[in-house]
Amino acid sequence: MKYFAFGAVALNLSVSMAVADTTVQSCNRTVTFDAPPERAVSNDVNLTEMMLVLGLADRMVGYTGISGWKTLDEEMRAGVEELPELSAKYPSKEVIIGSDADFFFAGWNYGMKVGGEVTPETLEPFGVQVYELTESCTHIMDKEKASIDDMYIDLTNLGAIFGVEEKAAELVDGYRAELAAFTSELETGDPLRVFVYDSGEDTPFTAGRYAMPTALIEAAGGVNIMDDFEKSWATVTWEEVVERNPEVIMIVNYGEVTAEQKRDFMMSNPAFAKLDAVKNDRFVTLEYVEATPGPRNIQAIKTLAEAFWAE
């Protein structure tokens, strides 16, 4: 009899735990989940890779926003081979709802636009809860400068939402330890002035204070020349770039214009001839998935540091 009573208590406790709410902060919203999502959709390659490293592919019904701009490497192709791409670029509300999704992992300018048709508010009536990429919160609220912690926060929150907290903690602890070990042995000099060249010839699209490359560059011993640019990813003028005279140019590689074509454009344009980076031919390339918040950020820091300090 006593054994039965214990079993009943244990059963009740188990049921209670199964239905316990999970609450996380998503930009300026507090979002509560009464159960882990079972039909998730992620947008863009870096957000999708966060889902994959947490082992959540079997909780997904698809992904969006990759093939319209980027290509997947072999590792990513293997990770999503069982999942359909629901939209090559930003999804419409009908695409998300039509997939029978119960969760959308996206960000502002990562699948959602301020004032657009796909937002947490427009999806909520259809039973789709949204978690927003932390880096992107600057588009709708005041936010601190970009930090590698932004990526750790997202992995930790996704772990809580999907009930895989231990896996998330293991990943974050591992990334922290790997970065600490690397930077403790990194020998640097005065911070190098770095320009992030994403795209554009008439006007350059670059990373400002609130975009992840600023944090990656600093961790590698440099400084983003647009560190005082109060934007995330946005357009500046070439005059500003020339005035700030970068010593290194970091190219973000994706889309139809290759990294080599971007380098050739800067090397061949007389307007850039006096830039230290051009005179000394100092370019470094990061793939899009490395330069945006995601599991490859630690390797990106190592790549930058090697380019900065190997000479």
What this model shows, in words?
It is globular and about 60 Å long. With 311 residues, the chain is α/β, with parallel strands linked by helices. The protein is built from 13 helices and 14 strands. The strands form four sheets. Strands 3, 4, 5, 6, 7 and 8 form a six-stranded parallel β-sheet that branches. Strands 11-9-13-14 form a four-stranded parallel β-sheet, with helices on both faces. A two-stranded antiparallel sheet has the order 1-2. Helix 6 packs antiparallel against helix 7.
How many strands, which pairing sense, and closed or not: the largest β-sheet?
6 strands, parallel
Q: Which regions have little confidence, pLDDT < 50, spanning 5+ residues?
A: 1-18
**Average pLDDT, all residues:** 93
Percent helix: 25-40%
Structural shape: globular
Count up the helices.
13
Q: What is the N-to-C order of secondary-structure elements (H for helix, E for strand)?
A: HEEEHEHEHEEHEHHEEHEEHEHHEHH
| First and last CA, distance | 76 Å
- Percent of residues in β-strands: 15-25%
Question: Would you tell me the structural class of the helices and strands?
Answer: alpha/beta
